[in-house]
Write a structure and sequence with these properties.
Length: 407
């Protein structure tokens, strides 16, 4: 592999509606966009592969399009993992440093983390990420970086993101069949967090809400550490299906109408506005009140936010979200959705757009591509932690060492 090729990073997002491959180059000043390709997704449902050959074909098309722009083959990539098979569990581990207090070394931290990793999991599950929440030096809790401190005992509390072994392996196998070696498998909301969250939100407490086509994934971060991961079985396609049924229009037309004219709050839609709605079959199109569209979308939006509220409350993390909610993914672009969050959860919300990287086309700087851009940023920071300068110090290095999949 040439030096130039070794500086390239590729991210592949296997979404329910689209498969996206984005390539960036590592430069002295950070990442620079180089190419991307997209294809309609086939063979996946709610983050799970249901037809591996169709997934392979979708990956082929997206990668070939990116290769055409890049003018060289793509052989390695990081890929996102999400869906109902993801589970987050807490774990704790520790080591004795001796009978007398001594300085904590990097190897001590590694050993404590490995102890925390050694939790009992069913045969069909594997740890995807090991995310430190806090260290405990003797009786002192809340330590973020124990390196160099003095003590006799070091403990660590972690959040372990686990995944179905078969579901994860199916993703790796699909990419391998498409000619791609998988460098990392990354929990998609964790990648999104790299792309859309601000440092003050991470500290005060925030819930990242990644609204995909088939489902919604949740990630709660408080005081800079992941506290909870979750899944809601409602996504953008459910909104489109409601429109198709309620307005008696083909599903493709329903999705277009939702994107162009949809709003999650009926009262924000003028009374007199009409829209053209295609009919099913050979029947002519009809003119219908735009407010009817809002009356279809608002109940689904409220349902999603109520399910999210109940999920977070049951997990005991709702009150940790002091900075509110950041909505990302394609479903986050529905106007009025932020207002529904305020009405149901009584907390601030915003739409999360991915952080810009050099030369990134404007059409990729949107919530739909937050996962793909986040995967690039995650891979970049992991690469720097393993062999380059440390962009975020000790915690970044730990994430690079322990938060990666061992696929």
């Amino acid at each position: 592999m040439s030096k130039q090729d070794s500086n390239l990073l590729t991210a592949i997002d296997l979404g329910s509606s689209k498969t996206c491959a984005v390539v960036a180059e590592i430069t002295e000043t950070g990442l620079r966009y180089r190419a991307h390709g997209m294809a309609d997704s086939r063979g996946t449902r709610r983050g799970m592969i249901v037809d591996i050959d169709k997934v392979v074909a979708s990956v082929h098309r997206a990668v070939e399009e990116a290769e055409g722009i890049l003018e060289r083959p793509i052989e390695h990539a990081s890929v996102g993992v999400a869906g109902p098979h993801i589970r987050g569990v807490g774990s704790q581990g520790g080591i004795s440093l001796g009978s007398r207090p001594r300085e904590i070394m990097r190897e001590d931290v590694r050993m404590a983390l490995e102890k925390a990793r050694s939790l009992s999991l069913p045969d069909d599950r594997q740890p995807l990420h090991l995310l430190p929440q806090e260290y405990i030096v003797d009786e002192q809790t809340g330590v973020q970086d124990p390196l160099g401190m003095v003590g006799r005992k070091l403990e660590v509390r972690v959040h372990v993101v686990t995944a179905s072994t078969s579901a994860t392996q199916n993703i790796v196998t699909a990419l391998n069949k498409a000619g791609i070696h998988v460098d990392d498998t990354v929990f998609e909301p964790l990648a999104c967090a790299d792309a859309v969250l601000r440092s003050d939100e991470r500290e005060l407490g925030v819930c990242l809400v990644d609204i995909g086509a088939g489902s919604t994934d949740l990630l709660v971060i408080h005081e800079g550490s992941v506290q909870h991961t979750g899944f809601i079985p409602v996504g953008g396609d459910h909104f489109s299906n409601d429109v198709a049924v309620g307005m008696r229009t083909p599903l493709g037309a329903a999705d277009t109408i939702k994107r162009q004219f949809g709003c999650a709050v009926v009262m924000q839609i003028p009374d007199s506005t009409e829209i053209e709605v295609p009919s099913v079959g050979d029947r002519p199109s009809r003119m219908m009140q735009q407010r009817l569209l809002g009356e279809i979308l608002e109940p689904r939006a409220r349902e999603l936010m109520e399910m999210m509220r109940d999920h977070l409350r049951q997990a005991g993390v709702l009150e940790l979200c002091g900075a509110g909610f950041v909505l990302t993914g394609g479903g986050a672009r529905l106007p009025g959705l932020v207002d529904v969050v305020d009405q149901i959860l009584h907390k601030a919300a915003r739409v999360g757009y991915p952080a810009a990287i050099a030369k990134l086309p404007a059409d990729l700087a949107t919530p739909e591509f937050a996962t793909a851009i986040g995967l690039l940023l995650y891979a970049y920071r992991s690469r720097m932690a393993r062999g380059g300068p440390e962009p975020n110090g000790f915690k970044s290095k730990l994430r690079g060492l322990f938060a990666r999949s061992r696929s």
